[in-house]
Please model this.
Amino acid sequence: MVLITGASTGIGFATALRLHHLGWTVLAGVRKSEDGIQLKNSISTDADRMIPVILDVTSPAQILSARQFVLEKLKERKISLRALINNAGIVVPGPLEYLPLSDFRHQFDVNVFGLLEVTQTFLPELRKSQGRIVNMSSIAGRTVTPLMGAYCASKHGVEVISDSLRMELKNTGIQVCLIEPGSIDTPIWKKSLSQADDEPSHLPAMANKNYGSMMRSFQTLAKILAKSAEPVETVVHAIEHALTAKIPKTRYLVGKDAKRSLLTNLIPDRLRDSLILSVVNKYRNSTHPKAND
Model:
């Protein structure tokens, strides 16, 4: 049995379907019951192996409720929890100077604290099975992009937590893996681009005065990159390998752009800053289409 958080859409949804196809019993963490219904309606056979679980990773009460539900299913089916996939995540864009701290905290509540609390909650079962933990990070966890400071910081946190867990759990038989995608064609980025379109109206007037040109340029660049985003299946394939390989990789770098981005870490900081800013500012005077164009 495998538990996946953030299975309502995108990578989580596709992973749930793929693992079900491979014969896994899937506990699919969703925030709304209708998302669970959609998942079950997407499969034609053995629907009893696709089990939706209401799970908002920012809610301690829902996490505890999910734990009780999972324990009941394990006992009922006489199987063990073999893997946890921490996939739930959000993107909060905006300049750090003006980004509301409530938005910054929410970024960490979902991407970092939620991931850790879910992991702590289900580790006792994973110890019994010597299972696997697969954490969804991003190339943003190893690089930095202006206007994405909150997101990058949260994914850096995921990287550190995963590395620490891997060492701490070394003698338990539990494997800890990181998935580090670049641009992937998923709803999370379409939603963040739509949010970015409206960002100036949600920030103080000074934010638009000081960063408006950079924000518009970044939005244009992001939409151009989105057109060449990797299909979600490339990430699903990496997750599948992390779950099934005898000796899984500690990190799975997914996508050509992710690999290119990582190369920037090899150059001096100020040169890297100039390089990244030159790319972002290339579209400073461009008009950008809306996210749903």
